[in-house]
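Deliverable D4.2, example record:
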Amino acid sequence: MITSQLLINRFELRILLLSFVLLIGTTAFCQSDNYGSKRKMLLRDEGLSQVSYIDLADSTKNWFVTVPAGRDLQLVGNGEVLISTGNGYEVREIKGGKLVKQDTTYPGTVMVRMLRNGNLLVVGLNAQGKKGAVLAEVNKSGLVKKVLNFPEYDYVRLVRETAKGTYLVTANKMVFETDANGKIIWKANLTKGPEKTNAWQALRLANGQTVVSGGYAGYFEVFDKAGKPVSTITGPPEVKPNFFSGFQVLPNGNYVVANWQGHGPNYGGSGHQVLEYTPAGKLAWSWRQYAHKFSSLQGVIVLDGLNTNLRYIEGAKGVLEAGKKIKN
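Output generated by the structure prediction step:
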């Protein structure tokens, strides 16, 4: 009887300890949920062709506007956001989403980005009278100053200017770096995912590594200076990692990414569509979108700590850095 009672007590103790561990884990998860609970974000919804402003602490400030299909978002100063479209771009006020400027003279546009020198980088496929991936630099008067052409690539997504003035270009399973004259000086290939993975965006970090959002691979992949894979980041299954698209490196080094779920209007209840990871691969925070307001997010800018009167471009650490005020 004494032996049986001891076994029962030990079993009860194990159950108690397990319950305590689960409680701690749940508490930690709740603390993680509270982290970021007052964030302000600009979001691009591909499924609904929509751009929105979300204030998690005050929903009365939220707005949602329909925009032409396209990719990417950028803060360009004067309280405005640059929105790429399939034929050029729009500029809208961050407070309210009002249209400020529109240019539809660039058919075949994939994305538009303002460079450090104030010119626009217009990226397209089979554009400017050329085949393949095309990077055209356009000045404020609309004059094309330079065209970089890569006819061997039939796919291109987001392009980012590095701190040293080169460009990181994503093309299917590849990301490559080109200098200002169109010479490819670095390459890396995603190691997982389907053949046409749709690598989406790449950023160069302070340590020389390059982090890439892997599209249909549903992960980040990090490469070293030689283009060799270092690590991958994804998960957990509960947030439904599906397609890692536009992302931002925060000042603390974490990566915030839009977790796209599918084409069309019916994905609002699918997955957590804004995810934040530490460089070590831990999920630090996630946001489950309002199912009735969104479908499938493809771009995100976390506005916390940023001055929307200034233009922002990724710096030497991959983090958004403020530039000059821009007059459109």
